[in-house]
Amino acid sequence: MGMEAMSTSGSEAREHDGPRFPEVAERGLSASDVERRRESGQTNHVRDTTSRSFADIVRSNVFTLFNGIILTAMVLVLATGSWKDSVFGVIIIVNTGIGIVVETRSKRTLDRLSILVAANYTVRRDGRNVEVAHDGIVLDDMLWIRSGDQIPADATIVRSWGLELDESMLTGESRTVRKNEDEDVYSGSTAVSGLALAHVTAVGEHGYAATLTAKAKVYHRTVSDLSRGVNTILRYMTVVVIPLCALLVWSQMQAVGGLHQSLETGQWRSAVVSSVAGVVGMIPEGLVLLVSLNFAIAAMRLARKNTLVQELESVETLARVDCLNLDKTGTITDGTIVMRTIVPVGDAVIDATVRQAIFDLANEENPNPTGRAIIDALSREGVRGGEVSSRIPFSSVRKWSAVDGPCGGWFLGAPEMMLSALEGDHDDVFDKVTALADGGDRVLLVVRTGAAGVGNPDVPVLPSHGTPVALVVCSENIRDDAEPTLRWFRDQGVRCRVISGDNPATVGAIAERVGLTGDDAPRTMDARELPDDVEEMSRVLEDVDVLGRVLPEQKKAIVEALHSSSHVVAMTGDGVNDTLALKEADLGIAMGNAAPAAKAVAQVVLVDSRFSHLPDVVARGRQVMANMERVATLFLTKTVYSSLIALAVVLTRVPFPYLPRHISYVGALTIGMPAFILALAPNTRRYIPGFLSRVVRFAFPGGLAIALSVMLGAWLLPGIMGWDLSRASDLGELRSSCTMILFAMGIAVLARVASPLRSWRGVLVALFAAAGVGGIMIPPVASFFALTFPSERMLRALLLAVVASAAIFVVIHLLAPVVGRWMERLRRAIMR
C-alpha cells in the first residue's frame, strides 16, 4: 500500500493505514535511479536454491561403486538365463531409493532456507514514501525502519528516533541495542522500538544475512565412521574382485573341459553363474542396506520423541561425540525473563504497598520483557493494577520509569543511574547490586520519594532525595531440564562448554547455577581474548568452560580449534549467528524455535526445543554404532570366506562349491535377517574408536575356518561319495552338501556374534537354524534354491564334515589371539 507525499512545510506524511512519519529533507532515489539499479542487478533478490539439483542427488546415489559391482554381476547372471540366481540385485533398488529419499528431503529443507522474512517495506523515493516488496529494495534506497520490522538489507542510519534493535539472531547478544546516526545495521536483525531512516549499503547476496545463508546452503554430506568403514571394504574388494572374477570364469571353464568345449556345450553359462556366486559373496551387499535401514529406523524412533534427524548418517555421529558446545539462550535458558525475588534494602520491609508500587511501575501500556516478567510474577501473588495519577514510562535512554500513586512517588530503574542521582552514601546498596549482578541476575532498584512525587512528567528528572527500598531481581529463565541433562553428559564423559554472545560473567553465573562443571566453578573467558591461531586456541579451550562475547565467526573458529585436537564436536544453537558453527560441527543440533537458517543447516532438530531430548539422541546413536559393529562382523566374515573360497577354486580348478542362490539362502538365514534383528536390540555401550580393525580381527578367523571347511568338503566329498562332477546331478549333490556345511558354519558364527546366548539371542539363533533345516524339507523352497535333502550315506558324511568343521572353527579361534599378539610384537619390533 502506498503512502501520501510528505509536504515541505513541516507536516507529516502518513501511510494510508499505518503510522505517521516525521518529514525529512532527503528525497531518496529517483525513478530513473531505481531503474538503473534494477537493470544492473543491484536489487535485494536472493537466489533460493541449493548447490545440488535433484539430478545430482540421483546421480550420486545410482552411480556408486557398490551398485556398479552388483549390477554387473546381475546382468551377467541374467545373460545366462538363470534369473533365480539374480535375486541379489534387488538390494540395489532398495538401497538407492533410501539414499535418494533422504537427500531429497535435505535439499527441500535447504531450498526453504531464508533468514529474512518476506514482507513489504517503506522507502523514500522522489520525495515520497512508497511501499515496496523485499525484493524491490535497491542499492542506495532510503529505507524506513519501523518497530517490528526485520531489516531486509544492510544499511547506515541517517536519522534515528529512538531506534532499538534485537540483533540476537546475528550476534547472540540477548539485549537490545540502541542505534544512532552513522551506525551500521545488518539484515536479519529486528527493530523492537523507535523509528529510523537508513541508507541501504548492501543488497541481495551481498547483505550480511544473505552471506550467512549462502554459506549455510552449501551442501555438506555427513560421512559416518561406519559408512567410511564399509566404503573402505568395498574399495579393497574392488581391487580383488575384478581380477578374481576373470580368474574364476577361466577356472570354471577349465573345470568343464576348457573354453572351446564350454562354448560348444553351453556350459559357459554355468561357469559364469559359478563365478558370480564367488563375486556376490565377496561384496557385503546386505551390510550397505542394513546401515541405511538402521539409520532410517533410528531416525523414525527419534521422531516419535519430537527429534528430527535431517541426515541419516548423523545418527552414528551421535555415538562418537565427546565435546558439546552449548548456546546459552535457547538451550540452557529459554530466552524469557522471570522475576526471581524482591530483596529489601536497609531497614525496608517488602509489604503490600511496595509490591503494589512495583506492579504499577511495570504495568505500562507496552511493557518490555523485564516489565512483563514482574507483572506475571506479582499477578501470581494476587497483586492487581492500582491507582496511578501520573506516569513517566520506561525509556531505554533514561533506563528508568516512575509513577505517582496514593502513597506518593516511586521510581524503578537501573541501579547505577538511580544511585548516581541520589544524595548520600549508598555503597552498601551498590555492593549488594554488584553481588547479584555477578551471579548472572538483572537487578532493578526501587526508590521511594513519598509526597515529593515524580515531578513533571513532561520533563522527567531523577530525584536527588529519595529512599532506596528494594531490589527487583530478574534473570533469564533456565530450562527445567538443563541441570539433569548436563549431569548426564558429565557422567557419560562428554565435555560441555557454553558459548554465548552475552557477558562472560553473566553466562558463567548461569552455567554455575545449572551445574555445568558439577561442584566446581566453571572457568570463564572473554572470547575477545582468544588467540587467532587455531592450534593455540585449541590449547586455550582445554582450560575454558564458558566463553562470552563470542562473534559468529569465532563460534566457527572454536569448532575448528576443537577439531584440531581430534574432538568430535556437537553444537547446539538457535540463531542465525550459530549457522556457520552448526555447519562446521560434526553434529549440528537446532532447537525447534530456532531461526529457519539454524534449523536448515542442523543435522538434528529438537522440534519441541527440549534440551532433555539430547541424552535420548546420543543413546540412540550409541545403539546404532554398537549394534552395527556387532552385525558388521557377520557380513565381513562372509566377505572373507567368499574371497578365500574363490581363491582356492582358482588355484585347484574345481567346480565352484555353491551357486548364487545358495549364498542368498545361507546369507539370509545366518546373516541378513538375524543381523537386522540384532541391529535393533538395546545397546548403550559408548563408542570406542577402531571400528574397522575390530571387525576385521573378528571376521578373519571365522572366515578362514568356514572357507577351509567348505573347501575340504569340495575336495574330499566327491571321492567319499563316488560323485562324477561332470554329471549335473552329482555336481548338484556336491553343491547342496557344501551349502549345508556353509550353513552349519554360518550358524556357528551367528551364535558367537549373538552371545551371550542365555537370553532371547539364543532363541534367535535356534530359530534360524531350524528355519534353514526346515527349508530343505519344503519342496518349493528346496526346488527354487536347488537344495536336495541328503541320503542316509550322504548325511553320515555331512555329519562327519560338520564335526570336522566345528573342530577347525574352535582351533582357529583359539589360535587367533595368540597369532594376533605375535603379529603385534613383530610390528612393534619392525617399527623400532
From TrEMBL:
<feature type="compositionally biased region" description="Basic and acidic residues">
    <location>
        <begin position="33"/>
        <end position="48"/>
    </location>
</feature>
<dbReference type="InterPro" id="IPR044492">
    <property type="entry name" value="P_typ_ATPase_HD_dom"/>
</dbReference>
<feature type="transmembrane region" description="Helical">
    <location>
        <begin position="271"/>
        <end position="297"/>
    </location>
</feature>
<dbReference type="InterPro" id="IPR036412">
    <property type="entry name" value="HAD-like_sf"/>
</dbReference>
<dbReference type="Pfam" id="PF00122">
    <property type="entry name" value="E1-E2_ATPase"/>
</dbReference>
<feature type="transmembrane region" description="Helical">
    <location>
        <begin position="233"/>
        <end position="251"/>
    </location>
</feature>
<protein>
    <submittedName>
        <fullName>Cation-transporting ATPase</fullName>
        <ecNumber>3.6.3.6</ecNumber>
    </submittedName>
</protein>
<dbReference type="InterPro" id="IPR023298">
    <property type="entry name" value="ATPase_P-typ_TM_dom_sf"/>
</dbReference>
<keyword id="KW-1133">Transmembrane helix</keyword>
<feature type="transmembrane region" description="Helical">
    <location>
        <begin position="695"/>
        <end position="714"/>
    </location>
</feature>
<feature type="transmembrane region" description="Helical">
    <location>
        <begin position="798"/>
        <end position="823"/>
    </location>
</feature>
<dbReference type="InterPro" id="IPR023299">
    <property type="entry name" value="ATPase_P-typ_cyto_dom_N"/>
</dbReference>
<dbReference type="InterPro" id="IPR008250">
    <property type="entry name" value="ATPase_P-typ_transduc_dom_A_sf"/>
</dbReference>
<keyword id="KW-0378">Hydrolase</keyword>
<feature type="transmembrane region" description="Helical">
    <location>
        <begin position="631"/>
        <end position="651"/>
    </location>
</feature>
<feature type="domain" description="P-type ATPase A">
    <location>
        <begin position="119"/>
        <end position="214"/>
    </location>
</feature>
<feature type="transmembrane region" description="Helical">
    <location>
        <begin position="86"/>
        <end position="102"/>
    </location>
</feature>
<keyword id="KW-0472">Membrane</keyword>
<feature type="compositionally biased region" description="Polar residues">
    <location>
        <begin position="1"/>
        <end position="11"/>
    </location>
</feature>
<dbReference type="InterPro" id="IPR018303">
    <property type="entry name" value="ATPase_P-typ_P_site"/>
</dbReference>
<feature type="region of interest" description="Disordered">
    <location>
        <begin position="1"/>
        <end position="48"/>
    </location>
</feature>
<dbReference type="InterPro" id="IPR059000">
    <property type="entry name" value="ATPase_P-type_domA"/>
</dbReference>
<keyword id="KW-1278">Translocase</keyword>
<dbReference type="Pfam" id="PF00702">
    <property type="entry name" value="Hydrolase"/>
</dbReference>
<dbReference type="InterPro" id="IPR001757">
    <property type="entry name" value="P_typ_ATPase"/>
</dbReference>
<dbReference type="GO" id="GO:0005524">
    <property type="term" value="F:ATP binding"/>
</dbReference>
<dbReference type="GO" id="GO:0016887">
    <property type="term" value="F:ATP hydrolysis activity"/>
</dbReference>
<feature type="transmembrane region" description="Helical">
    <location>
        <begin position="763"/>
        <end position="786"/>
    </location>
</feature>
<feature type="compositionally biased region" description="Basic and acidic residues">
    <location>
        <begin position="12"/>
        <end position="26"/>
    </location>
</feature>
<dbReference type="InterPro" id="IPR023214">
    <property type="entry name" value="HAD_sf"/>
</dbReference>
<dbReference type="GO" id="GO:0005886">
    <property type="term" value="C:plasma membrane"/>
</dbReference>
<keyword id="KW-0812">Transmembrane</keyword>
<feature type="transmembrane region" description="Helical">
    <location>
        <begin position="734"/>
        <end position="751"/>
    </location>
</feature>
<feature type="transmembrane region" description="Helical">
    <location>
        <begin position="62"/>
        <end position="80"/>
    </location>
</feature>
<feature type="transmembrane region" description="Helical">
    <location>
        <begin position="663"/>
        <end position="683"/>
    </location>
</feature>
